[in-house]
Design brief:
14 helices, epoxide hydrolase activity, alpha/beta, 9-stranded mixed β-sheet, Rossmann fold
Length: 397
């Protein structure tokens, strides 16, 4: 492992996590190949021929799905991606919940040997995974040594996603439950005494906010997504809204009118959509691929291999049906009475203005960017990291 010298778990850890190496059985890969070969692509329709080169105004285009299916089947190399994942330090650890349930939690880490290192957890969203933060971790592992790294970097797989345990079958599961397990993970690594910071986008921003608002050990949060449902309580005629932010609000309104149907399906009929998308890799390709194409900045859209790696990991771990539980909750934002930071990317789904965002917590950092979208950690990892470091300077006392 190229990052093996960042492997020393802090001395205060309550339990030692187990090193983990991802190795998908060859039979599963062959099964995927067979399913791809046998899965049809829908016939041409007026709607699926509305193609601008990636995705159409009425949804992902037939051409993109057909071309990507062919590339996925004939050229994409999962073993190459698997080797890339294993070049980072992967761990699994057992986390016992308050009711005695035990979760097998996966995370990627860079541990520092600097006694003053600041613990930081980065939380992914949907339809993302821990893969979102590997570019950032690659940057850090090249820039620092274990002695000079100023942070402990922890990137978990959220419960229900890819390599971590699923939510229980006998009760509903909410963001607060996931947040509790993530908090317990950080305590198990010994960060209860020092405190820690959290960062996230999409669902990861919701997890970050709940943790920051709930647990004293969390000293603050930085987010690049801030979906404000109760806009009436966050906006006022006196708010200063820039021209760029006005364009962002147009994008938010467009998303709510023509891009939000998937979330309503996730939230109201999760059983149905879970069964549908678990039946075909091409179905997942269309459903998840559309999101990567439509939600990213066209100038910084992740590569086809990056998109396929995420979809392939979802398929091989069977996690899609267990990854959509958060959509059943009303996403009212808790106020965070701690230092918060907010990075604004113009192609975000919910690029809310600074004037609104700063009403959700004690904002100590804000920066607006002219490029980047929903998958900021993939699209602009250097800029996201630079923002986070600036936030830490203002937040960590």
């Amino acid at each position: 492992m190229t990052s093996s010298n960042f492997s020393t778990v802090p001395k205060g850890a309550q339990q030692q996590p187990t090193p983990f190496e991802l190795k998908i059985d060859e039979s599963k890969l062959q099964e995927l190949q067979t399913l791809l070969r046998l899965s049809p692509v829908a016939k041409e329709t007026y709607e699926n021929l509305q193609d601008d080169g990636s995705h159409g105004r009425l949804g992902v285009s037939r051409k993109w799905v057909a071309d990507t299916k062919k590339y996925w089947e004939q050229e994409y190399d999962w073993r190459k991606e698997e080797a890339h994942i294993n070049s980072f330090l992967n761990f699994k650890t057992k986390i016992t919940d308050d009711d005695g349930g035990v979760f097998d939690v996966h995370f990627v880490a860079l541990f520092s040997s600097n006694p003053s290192a600041i613990p930081v957890a980065f939380f992914h969203g949907w339809p993302g995974s821990f893969l979102e933060f590997l570019p950032l971790m690659g940057i850090l592992s090249k820039k620092y040594t274990p002695e000079t790294l100023p942070y402990h970097i922890i990137v978990p797989s959220l419960p229900g996603f890819t390599l971590s345990s699923d939510p229980p079958l006998n009760r509903d599961w909410k963001v607060a439950d996931t947040s509790r397990i993530m908090h317990k993970l950080l305590l198990s690594l010994g960060f209860g005494s020092t405190g820690y910071l959290v960062q996230g986008g999409d669902i990861g921003s919701l997890v970050s906010r709940v943790i920051a608002a709930t647990y004293a050990e969390c000293k603050g949060m930085h987010v690049n997504f801030m979906f404000i449902k109760d806009i009436a309580t966050k906006s006022s005629p006196d708010d200063e809204i820039s021209e760029a932010e006005k364009k962002g609000l147009d994008r938010l309104n467009q998303f709510m009118s023509v891009g939000h149907a998937y979330a309503q399906e996730h939230g109201t009929k999760p059983s149905t959509i879970g069964l549908v998308l678990a039946s075909s890799p091409v179905a997942q390709l269309a459903w998840i691929g559309e999101k990567f194409l439509a939600w990213a900045d066209p100038s910084t859209t992740p590569s086809l291999d990056t998109i396929l790696s995420d979809i392939t990991l979802y398929w091989l771990t069977g996690c899609y049906p267990t990854s959509i539980y958060t959509y059943r909750e009303a996403k009212e934002l808790l106020y965070v009475d701690k230092p918060i930071g907010y990075s604004y990317f113009p192609y975000e789904l919910a690029p809310v203005p600074k004037a609104w965002a700063e009403k959700t917590g004690k904002m100590v950092f804000f920066k607006s960017h002219d490029k980047g979208g929903h998958f900021a950690a993939l699209e602009r990892p250097e800029q996201l990291w630079a923002d986070f470091e600036e936030y830490v300077k203002a937040a960590w006392k």
